[in-house]
Write a structure and sequence with these properties.
- The chain is built from eleven helices and no strands.
- By secondary structure, it is mainly alpha-helical.
- The longest helix has about 30 residues.
- The radius of gyration is 22 Å and the shape is globular.
């Protein structure tokens, strides 16, 4: 889903794309100085913030009955851990834009180097414009699971387009890379919708915080293995990109089957009763 954090990442991506297009030492030095100043600004804003008031809480006492059952433990839930493992693979679209596309444009295709920042801009514009409209197609758990099929297709198409970009001249490479950027961007948006819905729907109501905490590890692991995965695809060449897209597509299909039995209950992200009805 499109959040404040996502919007911030998009703006930062646009800012980082400018030095990549300029390509001078001064531009990269200015980027580093600007990054340092942004941390200083965040620190100043944090210092000025006061401690928020604590909400009223009902504290359990010794006279209250003890819970009869323990909350579910996500580390003992093999099905959910398998789901999180597949999520780590599906998160690899992030490494494509941060590492894969720029390096492939420079070292694996005949496209002009200035295309890299333009594709980042294209990615940002598409996400800002289409993320919310596309989200309505995953409003229920059943719909979200169904989106895994077109998600697999977009990942596969993105990998094939990246592979084909090395075979032609400047115009052909530019067209293929643009198609790859659009495919991976569509995959990014569909994945956000699917992951938002399924990660909540698969978690027991009594332990959603713990389960979603484990689910968050998928993004953290991807930040470590993602650059390695796309670098391996670049080093392997066109076949590597085809295998990269195909592997994620197969993971989508595996997740589609994996979550089938766990989704035989109503969606948890859509409350059955609205606030006005209370």
């Amino acid at each position: 889903m499109l959040t404040v954090r996502t919007c911030t990442q998009r703006v930062a991506g646009l800012a980082a794309a400018a030095p990549l297009g300029i390509g001078t030492t001064t531009a990269y030095q200015a980027l580093l100085v600007g990054d340092a100043l942004s941390f200083l600004g965040a620190a100043l804003l944090t210092v000025r913030c006061a401690e928020p008031p604590s909400p009223t809480r009902t504290v359990a006492t010794s006279k209250d009955p003890l819970p009869t059952t323990k909350p579910a433990n996500p580390w003992r839930d093999r099905a959910y851990l398998a789901y999180v493992a597949t999520e780590t693979v599906l998160c690899l679209h992030d490494a494509v834009f941060t590492v894969g596309l720029p390096l492939w444009i420079v070292h694996g295709s005949n496209a002009p180097h200035g295309l890299a920042p333009l594709l980042l801009v294209l990615n940002n514009v598409l996400v800002v414009a289409l993320q919310v409209p596309l989200a309505r197609f995953g409003a229920t758990t059943t719909a979200a699971r169904a989106l895994l099929l077109p998600l697999a297709a977009f990942f596969a198409l993105g990998g094939v387009a990246m592979a084909l970009s090395s075979a032609g001249g400047t115009h052909a490479a530019t067209g293929c890379l643009t198609a790859a950027a659009v495919s991976f961007t569509m995959a990014e948006m569909l994945y956000a919708t699917v992951s938002w819905e399924l990660s909540v729907a698969l978690a027991p109501a009594t332990a959603q915080g713990a389960y979603l905490g484990v689910h968050g590890l998928a993004q953290s692991v991807q930040r470590s293995v993602g650059p390695l995965a796309v670098t391996a695809a670049i080093a392997t060449g066109p076949a590597g990109w085809t295998a990269f897209g195909a592997a994620i597509a197969v993971t989508c299909l595996f997740q589609h089957r994996l979550v089938r039995d766990r989704l035989a209950r109503p969606s948890l992200s859509v409350p059955p009763v609205t606030v006005s009805e209370h």
